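Bug report (template v2)

What were you trying to do?
Predict the complex of my protein with 2-oxoglutaric acid.

What happened?
Run completed; filing so the output is reviewed.

Input:
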Amino acid sequence: MESCGGQRDPDFRAFASRARLKPRFAFSPGSASSWSQLGMWYRRLPRLFVVPHRPTGSTSPRVPWLPRDRAVPAATTCWHHTAPESLKCAWQLHGDHLELRYANTLMRFDFVWLRDHCRSASCYNTKTNQRSLDTASVDLGIKPKAVRVDETTLFLTWPDGHVTRYGLEWLVKNSYEGQKQQVMHPRILWNAEIYRQAQVPSVDCQSFLETDEGLKEFLQNFLLYGIAFVENVTPTKEDTEILAERISLIRETIYGRMWYFTSDFSRGDTAYTKLALDRHTDTTYFQEPCGIQVFHCLKHEGTGGRTLLVDGFYAAEQVLRQAPDQFELLSKVPLKHEYVENVGDCHNHMIGVGPVLNVYPWNNELYLIRYNNYDRAVINTVPYDVVHRWYAAHRTLTAELRRPENELWVKLKPGKALFIDNWRVLHGREAFTGYRQLCGCYLTRDDVLNTARLLGLQA
Ligand SMILES: C[N+](C)(C)CCCC[C@H](N)C(=O)O
Ligand SMILES: O=C(O)CCC(=O)C(=O)O
Ligand SMILES: [Fe+2]
């Protein structure tokens, strides 16, 4: 019997970052034109395609940097160049910003931004990587009194005599213009054929636990495909816990920390039966759905019970291609999901709110799909005409998610642990007979990404 412990305080960041969109939902009829009033950033289409999938036969995946195509408009008057013969770096001071052209990138910097990000010893602590400058003490009308650029560095002298230096490469990496071309998470979107052809290897348990290379290979696969396997695991809950702790902190939820489950209906959810489960993501009813789900089948004496995996981002990409307006609707209409449980001693009522497709507001990159038709609550966040268009968009996405060619079916066996990116890949299961026991846990996403970054991966 699982414990019915309380859930810790949910995280509102994901939705709060889009909170400025909310009033528009409430008061507009939601026509295509009203969506485009949402701001200039939303006019661009979301970015999904990142890394081409590996051709058959190639081995370990490599993540290329994305090509940077930065349009550089013709130079205007009064450009200052680092050297007369060189166009490598040029700058121009405007009334309220500095324009800098470097390495084929045209960047525009607000003066307060330039003062705020000063990396001098008095403004920034390089031991802690924290800002010491009190941003609120910067005059909002500040303007540099002198500007100089050499081959590598921009020098700004402020009215009080303070000097700020920026490496030009640092500026390219950190400017808005540089960032908006970048994706946060390089991915390979897949259907069953693409995934099979890629021949992504499972990582051996010992190499996963004992070597950085094994762990890195595993995490690279996980980041690119949203699923990854570890094999030769001792089939116990304790050994599965050791695996989970190698890459992250375990996220304790109302289901406990490490859970076992079987078809005993010990909890008020279809997962605890022998019934089939259509593709879905878990914990859609949390304000921040769990980032990763770990499954390890410890026992199955019976038939059926295969696991279904579908890349939600691949399906979303198809929707974007066929019907960008529908993609946009799915990314704008906030939905509630709900978990209401009153079985035995377990009493829970969880509510999570957010759209089906969640995109980063600054580059429109898709980062989270929230899709669970079982747990979707009453729709009461948008007026009736938007509701109808939302159902049509949901149908388009569902049709993509249900295409047989997008379904990857696997039979989980004792010894093989599966890690699923619950923000991207949907899972389901075939009905089964006999005794079947799964164990697993949820992981905190930040901590998985932390481990990946510490190993030098882009995450
Ligand atoms: C994995 N475990 C059996 C512990 C929980 C299952 C949660 C099921 C729920 N309907 C959801 O999709 O979130
Ligand atoms: O039984 C299974 O294979 C998976 C059930 C499920 O969807 C879950 O536990 O989240
Ligand atoms: Fe599930």
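What did the reviewer find?
The longest strand covers residues 292-301. Residues 255, 259, 261, 269, 271, 280, 282-283, 372, 374-375 surround N-trimethyllysine (ligand 1) (CB under 6 Å).
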